[in-house]
Write the structure tokens for this entry.
Amino acid sequence: NTPVTCAIAKSTSGTDVEILADKPVSLAVSVVRKPSEVLLNGSVVRNWKYDAGGKTLNLLVPEGRNDLSIN
């Protein structure tokens, strides 16, 4: 496990997460439903996975500061 620091903001349009990681990390985020779009640093992420049973979004986040938008 790799520790990360996160700040999370929920809105009517989705969830924004600011992530600070010392190295690339596999991140699992609890979500209510499957996202229609996932953005990382303003770019569309295509290699994310949604676990319907666990209601989690899983994706790889690079080292450094990153902005994640889940819509």
Summary: Strands lie at 4-10, 15-21, 25-30, 38-40, 43-44, 49-51, 56-61, 64-70. The chain has a mean pLDDT of 95. The CA atoms of residues 19 and 32 lie 20 Å apart. The chain has no helices and eight strands.
